[in-house]
């Protein structure tokens, strides 16, 4: 009986093969990174305006259902936030929301957004919202029933 001696090979990768694979992965990640940042910023802007529009609709609904109370969204440009307030003299804060980091509000004659009992905007005006990449204007025309719109500049 003769024994066959075979050369036993280690199951694994060589160092060069591992480095080549790591370099390919690194190149792919470097190419995807900037694209993902742009997509993330775009998603963040889209999500903010979606939530802000829901907050406006909620404010309008509260104003129509609570006829005797002053319900409004107050803009705080210095703190880069807005709050939903209710009440005439004693302002009850229902919620506060901050803008994302690096964004800012610039009030163009509009410090608060309120609706009357019919759902019509109490005071017309514009608010600018500056993001990292864009400037948006929220326009509330006079006499329109909740028909404000956003313009991207």
Distance between the termini: 88 Å
Give the strand order, joined by hyphens, for the main sheet: 3-2-1-5
In total, the number of strands is 8
Count of individual helical segments: 1
Looking at the chains present, what oligomeric state does this protein adopt?
A: single chain
Q: Determine the mean pLDDT.
A: 84
Shape verdict: elongated
Task: Give the structural class.
Answer: alpha+beta
CA-atom Rg in angstroms: 28 Å
The main β sheet shows up as: 4 strands, antiparallel
* Percent strand: 25-35%
Helix share bin: 25-40%
Residue ranges: pLDDT <50 for 5 or more in a row? Answer: none
Descriptive report:
It is a single chain. This protein has 153 residues and is an alpha+beta fold. It has one helix and eight strands. It has one helix spanning 15-65, and strands spanning 71-76, 81-86, 92-98, 104-108, 112-114, 125-130, 135-140, 149-152. The strands form two sheets. A four-stranded antiparallel beta sheet has the order 3-2-1-5, covered by helices on one side. The chain has a four-stranded antiparallel beta sheet with strand order 4-6-7-8, with no helix packed on it. Strand 1 (71-76) and strand 2 (81-86) form a beta hairpin. It is elongated. It starts with 14 loop residues before the first helix and ends with a strand. The mean pLDDT is 84.
